[in-house]
Structures are given as structure tokens and as C-alpha cells.
Specification:
This protein is α/β, with parallel strands linked by helices and about 625 residues long. The chain folds into four domains: about 90 residues, no CATH class; about 150 residues, von Willebrand factor, type A domain (Rossmann fold, 3-Layer(aba) Sandwich); about 100 residues, Immunoglobulin-like, CATH 2.60.40; about 170 residues, Class I glutamine amidotransferase (GATase) domain (Rossmann fold, 3-Layer(aba) Sandwich). Helices cover about 20% and strands about 35% of the residues. A nine-stranded mixed beta sheet has the order 18-17-19-20-25-24-23-21-22, covered by helices on one side. Strands 7-6-3-8-9-34 form a six-stranded mixed beta sheet, sandwiched between helices.
Length: about 625
């Protein structure tokens, strides 16, 4: 309770005036002596008792009348808790811990302001209430705990570099275990990344605690080769893309740091402009180049630095074996269109298989192998066991079924029309980046294959297997030939990335070198135990044998930086979209059952009117008591 005019509280002792008068009146009583009581009537004792009670009640009513009358002068008010449910409750707290909450408002990070507001909210809870805490990155979800336990957990939390991953479904499962009425509070800066979770149906209408504002920020969105694919014998340059998310122009200094090499550039960005900054340093030698690009500086630090790991290719030796040279022409032109192709191609007939040393090639391509003998097949087996890889293009029926380990040949077919790719294994590392474009070509003729120890990566219309991968060896099988009368893939722009990515995959060249924080890095390793180096130090990870290969899945990727897994280097960065501090518009929130607040304010109730009502009530009681 509070008072707008607390000085009038000093008048409250005046409400005791009736009590003082009462005692003064008793002091004035006089003793009168009677000579005889003979002529006095006997007074009834009950009447005497009622007068005593009446006197006490009049004294009480007059005192209370003055008390409430004087109390009304001080203008008393009480504060009503902002929590909707009185008494014990089950409180669900969702805290946005994505890196946009690192933006500084009035010298403090938004994340720290959110923690302070949560502590303020918890202080209003009844003692036996229970609280569950979720982080928007989904790295923490507590059961319902006493508020003291949540306060201890809150004290240990810091902002993350992860993207929003929490689903409302997970919150709903937790609320089903609540013992009391449930209230949900979401502490966030209402960035665009909150759109998905806010648009989902919540188990109870959430209260959105808005901690955001219109912030200014610039960030590095990407770093790559300017030429996109760093080919052998070609001079390459590193380029970075930098964006200004603010509504006003800004000048920045940009630094490229690559081991001992350092280069500075200056750039001016117009409002909301994204610009490519190309560094002058030249790169000719094949190899891995890792480092970072930094901008200086603004109020949101995480996206000011972008780590990169770029590979400049050396020529990959590839052997193409076929029968008719015409069937290899389009394939050869696609793999080596110019002298700066990443492949060193050797074209030979199948008859040369017995004389050539296969170990000097990273990949061997067999174009419609009809007449291979068992001895030649055994040579290929030894090549695979030694770490080599095969790419089979099959259409004609082989004279001897040498490939029964991978598939059974059921025949071939030429369509009157054509078939398209119907299903894509989008999780495969060679297909992930081209999963949409790969559906653009048509197939006119194909072999009918039944997979044995192989999985299907591409299916044509009707579920026809088109591209298979052996489960225990580095072998790919395409059920068609790379010729115009078999498929128009030879004329499509996706043909080059399709062939290049799969040959890099077979040659064990890691395709993806850049990941977002929190993503799992999957890499093939030569041994089960692999040393890993990263921002958290150095440690060992154990891989698993999958389909004949050792694969390691690294999940400790919460911090940005350069990670070295064995001989491979990877770069991890926070999601650049988090750097856009653009807030959700009011129209995005219309129609949703949301309560929006900026401050945790208690509702104040004016008690002056109640004081006057009570004073009037007691004076009425005195009036009726005097009359009756």
C-alpha cells in the first residue's frame, strides 16, 4: 500500500478524540449522598447492561468514523500484482538467448535486462508456486521447479550464438505436467526470427515482454572465393559480403586476417545496402585457407567477425574407361571444359584396364561396362579396398553379372516420352546444395536396377531408381548414360555441379566447409579416434562405422571459430540473419492472443473512495444506534 499524501497520516491520532472525551467524562463524575433509597424504583439490571454496550459501540463507531475520514485525506492506494492468477501458479518462462539479445541498450545487453525482469517477476510469486524455464535456442528446458532453483539457474546463463530452435509443442508437453493454473511469459526483442514461434498455437495466451527497440547494426554475411570455384592454375581472391541493416549510411573498416597475412579495406554502405568487398591478396597454390574477416565496430559484436575455411583445388586425377569413344565425349567435355578444370582426365578403352596402375587415380568412371572379365573385376575390388572409388554409368546388360553386390540388372527401357526426378535424398552431402535444381532435367532411356547392398539417392517418376550408392564402398551407380539421346542433363546448367560434387565426394574432398553454430559436422575419418581442435580447446572424438566407412559427427559446435577435425578444417559462424534487428510489425501480431508489455507494472487501486464509504457507514451506524 502507498499514499499520495502521506503527511496527512500524522492526523490519524486525532481519531482517538472520542476515547479521550470518554475518559475525561468519567473523571467528572460526582458522588451524591442519599438519606434513603426507599422512594427510588428498582432499576432493571438488563437495562443497565444494554446502556453499557451502547456506550462502547458509540465510542467505537465515532473512533472508526474519524479514522477512515482522516485516512482518506492521505489518498491511500494499493498495488495489484501483474500476475493474472492469484495464489500459487505454474509459471512458464521463455527466454530469447539468440545473439541479437547481446545488443546493448543503455549500457546493458538486452539479455541481462531480460534476466533482471525475470527476477522481478519471480519476486511476485507465491512461495509454493512452480516455474519452468525454456531458452529459445532449445539448449535448456527445465522441469517445473521452485522459484529459488530457477533463480540459481538463471544466474549461470549467458547469451548464445545459436538460432531459434524451440517449438511450442515442447512447451505444451511441459505445461501438461503443471500442478496449478499456467501463465506463460516470453522475454524477447521481437526480432523477425520470432515470427515462426509466435505464429504457432500456444497452450495458453502468452505475455510477450518486449525488450527490443530500433537498433543499428552492420554484419558480415558471407566470405567466399570471388570466383565461387577456386580452380587450379587460376588466381583467386577472397570476397566478403557486408550488410548495413540500419536506416542510415555508415562507413566501416574491414580487415582480412589469414594467419600472418593481414589486409585492410574501407567501405561505405547506404541504408539497408549489402555490398561485396574484394580483397587484393592473390591465391594461386592449391590448399586450405582459413581465417576471418572483421568489421569495426558497432553495438552488436557477434556478426562483426566471420570465420572462413576455403579450399583451393588441386587437379583430381580421374580415369574414364569406356567402349565406344562417342559415349565418353559429352562426359569428357563436362569434366574438362577448359585447362583450368579441377580434374585431370584420362580416357582409355576397357581393354587398357589390365595394363594401367589404378592407384594413381582418385576416381575411376566406367561408362557402360559390358564385357568386363572376372579378373578385371578383381582388380577393381583391390582398387576399392585400397581407398579408390568407382562411378558406374549403366545401360546395357553386362555379359556376366559382376555387380550383384550392388544391384540386380532387370533390363533397360526407352520411354516414348520422358521421366523426371521425383525424389531426392536431400541429406546427402553432394545433393544438399542442388536438391531443387536436380529435378529440372528429363530422362529418355535408363536401365532397370534393383538395389541390393545399395541405397537410392535419386528416384525417377514412379519410383524408378536412377542414382544408387553402395553401402560399404565408395561406389556410385547411374542407371543411364551421359548422352543427349539418354538424358537432356548434358544441356542443363545443373550438370556441371552434379558431376563435380559427386566426383569431389568420391575423391573424399569435403564439400561443405562452413556451418552455423549448433549444426552437426559430419566428416569421414581414417581412424575411429580423431583429435579435434576448436575455440574450446583440444579433445578427442570417436567416430562410427557406417556403410563401410568411418564417419564422425561433431556436435560440440556452439561457439563460432575455426574447427580442425583430423586433417580437415571447418568454419562455424552464428546465423547472419540474427544481425538484422528489424522488429516484427504490429500487423504481424494482430489476431493473435498475445499480451504485450514493456515494463512489469503493478496495477494501482485508489482506496480513498473506500475510506470515505467506510466513514459514512460508521456515522450511519452511530445515528441509528442513538435513535434506537
Amino acid at each position: 500500500m502507498s499514499f499520495l499524501a502521506p503527511n496527512f497520516l500524522y492526523l490519524l491520532p486525532l481519531s482517538l478524540i472520542p476515547v479521550v472525551i470518554h475518559f475525561l467524562h468519567r473523571l467528572r463524575l460526582e458522588k451524591i449522598y442519599f438519606s434513603s433509597l426507599f422512594f427510588l424504583r428498582e432499576t432493571q439490571r438488563e437495562r443497565f447492561n444494554w446502556l453499557r454496550i451502547k456506550e462502547i459501540l458509540l465510542l467505537l463507531f465515532r473512533t472508526l468514523f474519524l479514522f477512515f475520514l482522516l485516512a482518506s485525506l492521505s489518498k491511500p492506494r494499493c498495488e495489484r500484482s501483474p500476475l493474472g492468477i492469484k495464489g500459487e501458479k505454474s509459471l512458464v518462462l521463455v527466454l530469447d538467448d539468440t545473439y541479437s539479445m547481446m545488443y546493448r541498450e543503455k549500457g546493458k545487453m538486452r539479455f541481462e535486462l531480460a534476466k533482471e525482469k525475470i527476477l522481478e517477476l519471480l519476486s511476485l510469486l507465491a512461495k509454493k508456486s512452480e516455474v519452468s524455464l525454456f531458452l529459445l535456442s532449445d539448449r535448456l528446458a527445465t522441469p517445473f521447479l521452485p522459484k529459488d532453483s530457477i533463480i540459481k539457474i538463471l544466474d549461470t546463463l549467458s547469451c548464445s550464438y545459436l538460432s531459434p530452435r524451440l517449438s511450442v509443442e515442447k512447451i505444451e508437453k511441459k505445461t501438461s505436467t503443471a500442478r496449478y493454473g499456467t501463465e506463460i511469459y516470453f522475454f524477447t526483442d521481437l526480432q523477425e526470427n520470432c515470427r515462426e514461434i509466435i505464429s504457432q498455437p500456444w497452450p495458453a495466451p502468452p505475455t510477450i515482454f518486449d525488450l527490443g527497440g530500433e537498433g543499428k547494426n552492420c554484419g558480415v554475411r558471407d566470405v567466399n572465393w570471388q570466383e565461387k570455384l577456386a580452380l587450379p592454375l587460376e588466381v583467386n581472391h577472397i570476397a566478403s559480403r557486408i550488410k548495413n541493416y540500419a536506416e542510415e549510411g555508415v562507413g566501416l573498416k574491414v580487415k582480412l586476417q589469414l594467419k600472418e597475412r593481414e589486409e585492410w579495406q574501407e567501405v561505405f554502405l547506404k541504408p539497408r545496402e549489402e555490398k561485396e568487398v574484394v580483397f587484393k591478396s592473390e591465391f594461386l597454390e592449391p590448399g586450405d585457407y582459413s581465417g576471418r574477416v572483421e568489421i569495426f565496430t558497432d553495438s552488436l559484436a557477434p556478426d562483426n567477425t566471420f570465420y572462413f575455411s576455403l579450399k583451393k583445388l588441386d587437379k583430381v586425377p580421374v580415369l574414364v574407361l569406356g567402349g565406344e569413344r562417342e559415349r565418353m565425349t559429352f562426359l569428357a567435355k563436362a569434366l574438362v571444359p577448359t585447362e583450368i578444370s579441377p580434374f585431370s582426365l584420362t580416357l582409355l578403352p576397357f581393354s587398357s584396364l589390365g595394363q594401367i596402375d589404378l592407384t594413381q587415380f582418385r576416381v575411376v568412371i566406367l561408362v557402360d561396362p559390358l564385357n568386363l572379365r572376372l579378373g578385371e573385376r578383381e582388380r577393381l575390388r583391390r582398387y576399392l579396398r585400397g581407398g579408390g572409388s568407382l562411378f558406374l554409368l549403366i545401360f546395357s546388360p553386362p555379359q556376366v553379372n559382376l555387380w550383384e553386390d550392388y544391384f540386380t540388372f532387370l533390363g533397360n527401357k526407352r520411354e516414348e516420352g520422358f521421366l523426371r526426378v521425383e525424389r531426392v535424398d536431400s541429406l546427402h552431402p553432394a545433393l544438399a546444395a542442388i536438391r531443387d535444381e536436380i529435378k529440372s532435367f528429363r530422362v529418355f532411356a535408363y536401365a532397370l536396377l534393383r538395389p541390393n547392398r545399395a541405397k537410392v539417392l535419386l528416384n525417377l517418376t514412379g519410383g524408378v531408381p536412377f542414382l544408387l550408392e553402395a553401402r560399404e564402398e565408395r561406389v556410385l551407380i547411374l542407371s543411364s548414360l551421359f548422352q543427349p539421346d539418354f538424358t537432356d542433363l548434358v544441356y542443363k546448367g545443373v550438370s556441371i555441379p552434379f558431376l563435380y560434387r559427386f566426383l569431389f565426394y568420391l575423391a573424399n574432398l569435403t564439400l561443405e566447409k562452413s556451418y552455423l553454430c549448433g549444426e552437426t559436422i559430419r566428416v569421414s575419418t581414417p581412424s575411429l579416434i580423431t583429435e579435434v581442435k576448436g575455440p574450446m580447446g583440444s579433445w578427442r572424438e570417436t567416430g562410427e562405422i557406417k556403410e563401410g566407412r568411418i564417419e564422425l559427427e561433431l556436435q560440440k559446435t556452439s561457439l563460432p571459430g575455426i574447427y580442425q577435425i583430423g586433417e580437415e578444417t571447418f568454419a562455424l559462424n552464428p546465423d547472419p540473419r540474427e544481425g538484422d534487428l528489424t522488429r516484427l510489425k504490429e500487423r504481424d501480431l494482430i489476431g493473435r492472443k498475445l499480451r504485450m508489455i514493456k515494463e512489469l507494472k503493478s496495477e494501482r487501486v485508489d482506496l480513498k473512495g473506500f475510506s470515505l464509504i467506510f466513514a459514512f457507514f460508521f456515522i450511519l451506524l452511530e445515528f441509528f444506534l442513538v435513535i434506537f
